[in-house]
Write a structure and sequence with these properties.
The complex is a heterodimer of chains A (about 110) and B (about 270). Chain A has about 110 residues and is mostly helical. Chain A has helices at about 1-5, 15-45, 50-85, 90-95. Chain B has helices at about 5-20, 25-65, 65-100, 105-130, 135-150, 150-190, 195-230, 235-270. The interface between A and B is large, with 32 and 54 residues.
């Protein structure tokens, strides 16, 4: 037994050897996973869009533009109401008429 | 407790200043106009009371010309005349604030406020003279000088009122133009999917109404200057300006009603 250990001392697992072995195992796995991901993504990119994929963004865009127009209409309606109120305001001479004062006080006869 | 006082004071200042700077400037303008209007109404009330007292004292003196009655008449007259001058002064202050709210251009502002300042300086001198005079005859002489200025008071008042009316119409015009621009933007947004020829022709009609209104406003601007140059009475010039501005207002009202129609048409087109 002692002879066996002596003969195979160069094969005894040390921490450095364990790390090296782990790296050797992981490296092909990483390369394989990367290649797989690359091919899957490439295939997805090439694949024709489904009806939903193609149509939904267009609908969303149209809805957004309609919504923007609707908001603008609502805002214009509010501006017009404000305008109408301002146009129907009393004239300044009604709000602040010149005072009627007695300007005939100097003659006492 | 004392060491917390500066902290409390700083916090109070911070809260107060942040509140003050949050308020829009129009709030200040409105507040100061409301205050000026209240001052004017208050002084007018004082004038009415003083005028009643003056009439009573005057009639008593004219019925019986005793020294005591003359002294009472002097005091009542002086008080009424001071109240009358204060009414004019507070009226001019309120008019000035109302004018500034319409954001007039620099030349119009100088023209109208310059005239008002002239009248207010006269009132200030008048009040000083009133307090200096010791006899009824002297006080009545000072009053006569004030009454000779009635034309000038009218001129300053009606000129300011015309400038305020013009300023308000200009603000309204600017708002109508903004609303028209908003409408134009909506029309160009819906133009991709709809025929907007009719909407565009309506916009043109709105713009034509606004242009006609602006021309009438330009005429009023010239009329305002005539208050300083011409001999015609302030009330006549005010009537002329009213005619011009009434025409302008009709056009603006028409533009507003057209805008409402345009809005409804846009809604149905959408």
């Amino acid at each position: 037994m002692q002879n066996y250990e002596k003969d195979h001392l160069h094969l005894k697992p040390t921490p450095a050897r364990r790390h090296y072995a782990a790296l050797l195992l992981l490296l092909p796995a990483i390369v394989f996973a990367s290649l797989l991901a690359f091919f899957v993504l490439a295939k997805q990119k090439e694949a024709p869009k489904t009806f939903e994929e193609d149509f939904v963004p267009q609908v969303r865009e149209g809805t957004q533009s309609r919504w923007a127009t609707h908001s603008a209409v609502v805002s214009l309606e509010a501006s017009l109401k404000e305008l109408n109120d301002q146009a129907n305001k009393d004239e300044p001479e009604t709000r602040l008429a010149p005072p009627l004062l007695d300007f005939e006080t100097s003659s006492w006869e | 407790m004392k060491k917390f006082l500066p902290i409390l004071f700083s916090v109070f200042c911070f809260v107060f200043l942040s509140f003050v700077f949050r308020l829009p400037s129009s709030t200040f303008a409105q507040t100061s106009f409301d205050q000026a209007l209240q001052d004017y109404q208050f002084t007018f009330g004082k004038y009415r009371e003083a005028h009643d007292d003056y009439k009573l004292a005057r009639n008593r003196y004219l019925a019986s010309k005793t020294l005591a009655n003359k002294q009472s008449a002097l005091e009542a007259t002086r008080e009424m005349l001071a109240a009358r001058a204060n009414v004019m002064d507070t009226y001019f202050i309120a008019l000035s604030i109302m004018l500034l709210e319409t954001k007039p251009d620099e030349s119009l502002k100088n023209l109208v406020l310059g005239k008002i300042d002239g009248r207010r300086n006269f009132i200030k001198n008048h009040l000083r003279q009133l307090s200096e005079k010791a006899t009824l005859e002297e006080v009545l002489q000072v009053s006569e000088k004030f009454e000779e200025q009635k034309g000038e008071f009218d001129s300053a008042s009606y000129q300011a009122l015309t400038a305020i009316k013009l300023g308000e119409q200009k603000l309204l015009t600017a708002k109508i133009e903004n609303a028209t621009l908003e409408a134009k933007n909506i029309i160009s947004a819906v133009a991709q999917e709809n025929d907007v020829a009719l909407l565009n022709s309506w916009v043109n009609q709105i713009e034509a109404e606004v242009d006609t209104s602006k021309k009438a406003q330009g005429e009023t601007r010239l009329t305002i200057e005539k208050f300083n140059n011409q001999r015609s009475s302030a009330k006549n010039l005010f009537s002329t300006a009213n005619r011009e501005l009434s025409e302008s207002k009709t056009k603006l009202n028409k533009a507003i009603s057209f805008l409402f129609e345009l809005l409804n048409q846009i809604k149905t087109t959408q």
